[in-house]
Every structure is written in C-alpha cells, then in structure tokens.
Automatic annotation (TrEMBL):
It holds the Pfam family GIT_SHD. Transmembrane segments: none annotated. One of its GO terms (cellular component) is cell cortex of growing cell tip. Residues 51-81, 98-128 form the GIT Spa2 homology (SHD) domain. It comes from the Eukaryota. One of its GO terms (molecular function) is MAP-kinase scaffold activity. This is GIT Spa2 homology (SHD) domain-containing protein. The lineage of its organism: Eukaryota, Fungi, Dikarya, Basidiomycota, Agaricomycotina.
Length: 158
C-alpha cells in the first residue's frame, strides 16, 4: 500500500518562482512580429493548418519551452550567424538536441516554425494582437507592397 505524506519546504529555502508565461510570451510575440513582417506579408492566410493544430495540443509548459527555444534561436540568428549553437547546462539532453536541430534549420523552415509559434501565441493571448495591431502597421503595408511588386514584375523596383 502506498502512503502519502505531505512534504514541507524548509523555512529557509525560498520557493522557486513560476515563470510569468504571459509577460514572457509578450516579449516573444513582439520579436516574432518584427522578424516575420515580410514572411506574413507573402504567406497565404491559414497555411500550415495541421502543424498549427498540433501546437494547440501542447500544455502551457510545453508551449512555453518551445516558444522559448524558437525565441532563443531567433536572437542567436539576429545577433551573429557565426555563433554556433551552445548547449545550455541544466536542460534535458533531448531539449538541447532539439535546440541544436533548430540551429541547423534553413531560414525558410525556421520562418515556418516561427510563424506557427507566432500564430499559436495570438491564439493563446489574443490581446497581444489587439495591443500591437490597431491596424496594419506602416512596415507591414510597405512589405506587402514590396512583395506584390516583386511577384508581379519578377524584379525588385527601387
């Protein structure tokens, strides 16, 4: 027979704070919004529905870890592409291996994954989009116009 007992934390040991998923996710959303502006302007709406559907099944903790890994990889790519992936001490080896695979993704595949995370963030936190998008941003309008001209003419017009 199993016995259950309550385990008490010693009074001098501080509780481990739980991460504030919402505020951290807002930072991720803001960075992904800037990174993906051109991608979102040229991507078909509702593309990749099966992949995005899978993200809805992740727990808050699982999605937090995935979005953290995508955000970290985005920051690594933005800062200096020459910096190699470095494992993070304290993470499970499988997670470090997944982060290493993220680092090896070609840009187009990374953009696909980043957009999936972006859309899942907007699904889980719809207020993020409302806070940052009173209408199309100037950058979004310019990017959409640019890609429309490139697609129509096949040439970049400056």
């Amino acid at each position: 027979m199993l016995s259950h007992r309550i385990v008490h934390r010693p009074p001098n040991v501080p509780a481990v704070p739980t991460p504030d998923f919402r505020s951290i996710s807002k930072t991720y959303f803001d960075e992904l919004s800037v990174y993906l502006v051109a991608y979102l302007a040229r991507a078909a709406p509702n593309s990749r529905p099966s992949t995005r559907q899978k993200l809805t099944c992740l727990t808050a903790q699982q999605f937090y870890e995935l979005s953290t890994d995508v955000y970290d990889e985005l920051m690594r790519r933005k800062s200096d592409k020459q910096v190699p992936f470095l494992p993070i001490q304290g993470l499970h080896p499988n997670r470090n291996q997944a982060r290493q695979k993220l680092a090896m993704l070609p840009t187009n595949r990374f953009e696909d994954l980043a957009s999936d995370v972006y859309f899942e963030l907007t699904r889980r936190y719809p207020e993020f989009k409302d806070m940052s998008d009173p209408g199309p941003s100037l950058l979004h309008v310019i990017a959409k116009h640019f890609f429309r001209n490139v697609h129509a003419t096949g040439a970049i017009i400056t």
